[in-house]
């Protein structure tokens, strides 16, 4: 897993998704090397880089051109990118244009989550899965409701991570913001 501090960051682009959360998303996505993956709302490329190392092909999609630029820079910094296509477009439009997918990770939806999941679901191969990360209560409810409507199996975890920070007298545990991971797959 790539440490958070090894990513190039930008004030105009949120991310990277914290290392421990990337780890759990990979666990739920369970890539074995042969998959085609879409990282929807790639931001700084947190998921894009991890999947570039573990899947066959990755589409990194973001509507913010600065996010695409930073993701490209992070791929280059880490010697990755040969199997990555960067797409600067809105998620729904981009997903319509690309081929079949095994894994879709959604880290940003701009209030269009339900639509994005539905468009993405049409591209999923039989065993395909969609993983959503969410900091908003409303987003996780929307994800679950959409998976239910699609007849998908689904699951959710809330993750609260506290990292140890060394102080003079000991180690202080500092909490990160809680985040939810919601996943769905065809039955
Ligand atoms: C929280 S950031 C994702 C961080 C990323 N997972 C990382 O590790 O750097 C969310 C991103 O989603 C993008 N986004 C939001 N709505 C979108 C949409 N409808 N289509 C494409 N990108 C979108 C934003 O531009 C932003 O860069």
Features:
two-stranded antiparallel sheet, globular, 6 helices, alpha/beta, Rossmann fold, cobalamin biosynthesis, Cobalamin_biosynth_MTase, 9 strands, seven-stranded mixed sheet
Can you give me a brief rundown of this structure?
Helix content is 34%, strand content 32%. It is an alpha/beta fold. S-adenosylmethionine binds next to helix 2 and strand 2.
The third-level CATH topology is Rossmann fold
Order of strands in the sheet with the most strands? 3-2-1-4-5-9-6
Question: How much helix is in the residues?
Answer: 25-40%
Distance between the termini: 30 Å
Q: Domain count, please report it.
A: 1
User: What general outline do the C-alpha atoms trace?
Assistant: globular
Structural class: alpha/beta
**Count the strands?**
9
- Tell me the major beta sheet: 7 strands, mixed
Bound molecules: S-adenosylmethionine
Radius of gyration: 16 Å
Bin the strand percentage.
25-35%
Going by CATH, what is the homologous superfamily?
Vaccinia Virus protein VP39
CATH C-level class: Alpha Beta
User: Count of helices?
Assistant: 6
Low-confidence runs (pLDDT<50, min 5 residues)?
none
Reading the helices and strands in chain order gives: HEHEHEHEHEHEEEE
- CATH architecture heading: 3-Layer(aba) Sandwich
**Mean pLDDT across all residues, rounded?**
97
Binding site for S-adenosyl-L-methionine: 17, 41-45, 62, 91
Family: Belongs to the methyltransferase superfamily. Archaeal-type CbiT family.
EC number: 2.1.1.196
Enzyme class: transferase
